[in-house]
Amino acid sequence: MVMIVTGRLIKQLREEAGLSQTRLAELAGVSQAHIAKIETEKVDPRLSTLNRILSVIEGSGRKTLCRNIMKRDIVSLKPGDPVKRAIELMHNRGISQIPIFEGDVQVGSIREATIMRNLDKRLEQFTTGEIMDKPFPVVDAGDSIDILPSLLDFHPAVLVSEKGRIKGIITKSDLLEVKG
Q1: What are 121-170's pLDDT values in tens digits?
Q2: Which residues, at least 6 apart from 61, have a Cβ–Cβ distance to it below 8 Å?
């Protein structure tokens, strides 16, 4: 059986999910005006937009979102900070990775593995920018945590953005707390 998705159906599903047009737009990454035009059938959405909208509606209320488990207190350093500072922060805060920011832009990361690989060097003479690893991946705060396991298999942390700005961090232990 073929199901035809109409604007009226989108509106009905949105309302049943308890979502406002504004919230649906935010979660689907489109404007509220675009949602209104789709629901009144004034525009024909792209298939990718329709899939995002339906995915948000289907997952609303059932899926845990990244914003719900992220830690907002991000410990970070700048590329010019001494590696010794990174080691002290890791030890004192009980963390094993630190993102490196230049202004608002993540440019790299320092991880326990970064320190271990460089133990043969005189680390007190280096800055974080001189030995840093690649930046952590970034996910959107409205993404389902279902995307995290595959990312955290290869990275010790994932940063979370809201409206284009980094607002949180999720580590493997954060995910394990939710899934455990």
Answers
A1: 898 899 999 999 999 999 999 888 889 999 999 999 999 999 889 999 99
A2: 17, 18
Instruction: Return the SS3 of 133.
Output: strand
Determine the Cα angle at 158 with ends 99 and 102, to 5°: 30
Count of CB atoms situated within 10 Å of the CB of 97? 20
Asked if residue 17 lies in contact with residue 57, where contact means CB atoms within 8 angstroms, the answer is yes
- All structural domains of the chain, each given as residue ranges with its CATH number in brackets, are 7-62 (1.10.260.40), 67-179 (3.10.580.10)
Please give the C-alpha separations between residue 101 and each of 46, 73, 75, 113, 163, in angstroms, as whole numbers.
Answer: 36, 14, 10, 19, 18
